[in-house]
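Example 4.3 (complexes with small molecules)
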Amino acid sequence: MAEPFYITTAIHYPNGKPHIGHAYETIAADVLARFQRLMGREVRFQTGTDEHGLKMAQKARDLDITPRALADEMSGYFRDLFDKLNISYDRYIRTTEDVHHRASQAIWQAMEANGDLYLDRYEGWYSIRDEAYYDESELIEGEGNEKLSPQGTPVEWTVEESWFFRLSRYQKRLLALYNDNPDFIRPESRRNEVMRFVEGGLRDLSVSRTSFDWGVKVPGADNHVMYVWVDALTNYLTGLGYPDETEDFKKFWPADIHLIGKDIIRFHTVYWPAFLMSANLALPKQVFGHGFLLNRGQKESKSLGNVTDPGELVDTFGVDVLRYFLLREFAFGQDGSYSPEAIVTRSNAELANSYGNLAQRVMSFISKNCDGCFTASAPVEPVDQALRNKVQTACREELPAAFERLAFSSGLEAWMQAVFACNAYIDEQAPWALRKTDPERMQRVLATLCACIRDLSIAVSPVIPEASSKILDALCIPSAARDFAALAEDLALGEVRVENPKPAFPRLELPVQEEG
Ligand code: ME8
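Answer. The structure with ME8 bound is encoded below.
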């Protein structure tokens, strides 16, 4: 039986349209989900929108619409974008769904039954933009002595009756969790940051609000709504049917990985495991905090006027180019930057001129010179075998080992080296010259190349699903033979069939800059 694999992204705040950071995170999760499916695992992939909280309520008030109307409209933009990005999610969750209210109330009651919730008065700093409480000691000073959160967002002094979660009780258990499971928090730098924070001591957490009502009602205390993070984190359980003991829940919980950005690591590695321990539920196996994506080195913001619609990037460059660029350009886990020039340069060098050109050169040559079909009979030479070995090592060992660790860029680097080796082999073997001097040897060379192109296309398919399947279609590889298990069977290295090959990547030009 296929081993289950449950992967989630953060759920996104639909208080505006999706931005490039949302696209980046969801693409990375999709690549991992597709990769694990190809490895033969039964994957459950969840994403969605986080629709409660003060941030949503305030934005709706500013627009003079209800929070529900805002969530309905914006959530649609997220779904449309994810369709455009070819995101293969199994469940798109919206926290306004009734089933989610039920799940959030159930985990609340479980925490209450464990004696971890009590009513008191909250007095302290709150950042609406971060939907987070901060200690005085964590605040930084902005211009004009204004107090700001460590993320640089405004904070306001809040005083209200609130339910509290006894987070202070969990310090030791959390530290033991991090120590016993070094991979629970990745990358290492985030793990260190969280450990220092927890070692510094934990205060009980305010987990309800009375000053607004846009949220999940606290069971038995109707004038309170849950702190948005309590319900938001619970989405990972809701999607599997919690609190019912469904088949999905039994199969997929605990999650294999929560993929999130570095700014929300504390919520996922301190609060969330503590809530789960309190509710007596198993803990996720890993939380990975990826870096931030910057636009030419700068954070996108309305005031800088550099906010880019990720859908437009797809229209300009193509979905596979964007997916490839974002995972290839810089190491996953670190911050990285994008610009149209960098996308065009990377795509032309690696996708159009190297991989795309390799496939098109070989397949159109076969169409023209061999009627698209032949069986090679000449012996396999050591040089052919050497190329096969190089490609197979990259596709079956190096890329999968790197992707398992979420080291997408180095996996793609190994893959690209194998593409380069194929191009060097064509130049050396010069099949166009063999056509006249030794047609049998020419067929062997072409068959070797087709086997390599097949392997390269299967291995890279989680990243560039559209282009790779175009190439595999042209190579007449049946869809059932397009996973990592298929790579294990080396082709007979003989039979070749090519149908209607078309270039998978156009050579891109830089978009014309508007004069301004
Ligand atoms: O934090 N680059 O939602 P969100 C890369 N609702 N990733 C980025 C980014 C950037 N420039 N900007 C944001 C929330 N992200 C909560 C999550 S989960 C139970 C609740 C990432 O819409 C961010 O780190 O502000 C987060 O993982 C995700 O996008 C959604 O951010």
